[in-house]
Amino acid sequence: MAQAKHGDTVKVHYTGKLEDGTIFDSSIKRDPLQFKIGVGQVISGFEQAVVGMSPGESKNTKVPSDKAYGSYRKEMVMAVDRDKFPANIKPEVGQQYQIPQEGDRKTVVTVTDVSESSVTLDANHPLAGKDLTFDIQLIEIV
After folding, report:
1. Burial of 114 by CB count in 10 Å (0-12 exposed, 13-18 middle, 19+ buried)?
2. Under the phi-then-psi rule, with left for phi > 0, alpha for psi from -120 to 50, and beta for the rest, what region is 38?
3. Which residues are CB-contacts of 73 (< 8 A; sequence separation ≥ 6)?
4. N or C terminus: which one in the chain shows less Cβ crowding within 10 Å?
């Protein structure tokens, strides 16, 4: 039976969990995730787990933070003066904004604190610094 390898396009169903068992994402109630192995469309630990699987096979795999969204980096948290926000925007903890970068790139930041004088923005991925567990089922090699 065929096994998934670098260069293959695959379809998988997955459920991603944090160490405490909290589900952070799942494809079970939607179309399977399709990606090409080896081109960085998904986190490296997830991609590595799919390599060698055969269609119909399921597995549970732990992905350490360095093979997922990386370490949590304190230097990616910044306090911005409140007056830098347009008057019509009322920042609240948990809101996300896209900050334009050089070229056409944008960085997503999350509001983590709001005071009268400043707004604290965190540019880390919400799953940075976390070890993840995935239940993966290879549906097909396309």
Report:
1. middle
2. left
3. 124, 128
4. N
What is the Cα–Cα distance from 64 to 129, expressed in whole angstroms? 9
pLDDT of residue 85: 84
d(CA 19, CA 71): 15
The stretch 70-99 carries a mean pLDDT of 92
pTM of the model: 0.83
**CATH pick for 9-70+127-141 out of 3.30.70.1350, 3.10.50.40, 1.10.150.240, 3.40.50.300:** 3.10.50.40
Closest Cα partner for 72 from 141, 13, 123, 16?
123
The CATH class, in words, for 74-122 is mainly beta
What residue segments make up the domains of the chain, in order of their start?
Answer: 9-70+127-141, 74-122
Please name the helix (run of DSSP H) or strand (run of DSSP E) that holds residue 47, with its range, or none.
Answer: helix 44-50
- The C-alpha R_g of the chain, in whole angstroms, comes to 19
